[in-house]
Each structure stands twice: as structure tokens, then as C-alpha cells.
Amino acid sequence: MTLSPAKTIVLTKGKTYRVVNPIAELAIQNIITLFTEPDTSQKSGSAEIEKLVKSLAQLPGVELVRAVSHQPNDLHEVTFEILSHLEPPERRELATKAMTLVRETEWMLCEITNEDNWDFGTQMLRKFPTFLNANQVIASSYAQRECLQAAS
Fold this sequence. Notes:
Number of domains: 2
Strand content: 25-35%
Number of helices: 4
Radius of gyration: 24 Å
Largest sheet: 4 strands, mixed
CATH topology of the largest domain: GMP Synthetase, Chain A, domain 3
Strand order of the largest sheet: 6-5-4-7
Structural class: alpha+beta
Order of helices and strands: EEEHHEEHEEH
Number of strands: 7
Distance between the termini: 68 Å
């Protein structure tokens, strides 16, 4: 006799019987689905981060934007790096607008996903740091600009 949680095969005197346990089979399917489907907070987070990068890139005085994850494969802690060469007071105004957009997106994700562990930050830069791993940059406006320039 061979046993598995969902199916039991019984061999007796040349006859084979297959007994199915529907509850166990349903449980196994749910476990498989749990591990194969992407996390809903990851889906929502990814889409909202992409939208936010596009919104930040459209602010006046912004050259490029990139979203940098602090942990691999985790979108809950992200810093939005904004490349701009504006001088004060325009730079402060831009930073205020950017922080407002970032905060609103963070709060919206907390509501959508029913999780309060979203932590977004903003950095105003004149030059992007070069010491990042490629997998840390999860979204960028320069990839979109390169595609648009290639098309024109």
C-alpha cells in the first residue's frame, strides 16, 4: 500500500483501488497556490512604485528618478532618488512636492494591502551613487526615457 495525504492506492489480490481524500487534495492545492502566486502586496507595491516614479519624473526640475530597494525582493522599504540640479529655493519646493507624493503613495499602499510596514523615503541628489547592485534598482525613469529616445 502506498500512502499520500490526498490519495491512497490499495493493492489487494491483483485488484487496485484508488481512494481520494478531497479535503487533503484541496489543502495541497492551496499550499501549492500559496507558494506559486506572487504576494498581493508585492503586486500592488510594484505597480504603485512604477506609477510614483513616473509622477516624480514629471515634476519640473527633475532629470531622472530611480526607486532603490533596501532589501532584495522586498518592496516595503524603498528610497526614491531624485536627480536634480535646481538651486534653492526651487530645490526645496521640489523636495516638498516629491515628499508629498511619496508619502501619499506609502499611505495608499498601507490601506490597499492592510499592512503598515511600508517605509518610503526621498533623496534629492545631484549625482546618482554608483555603488548599488543592479537588483536594488527596482524602477527608474531613465529606462523609460531611453526607450522614448530610441523610438524618436
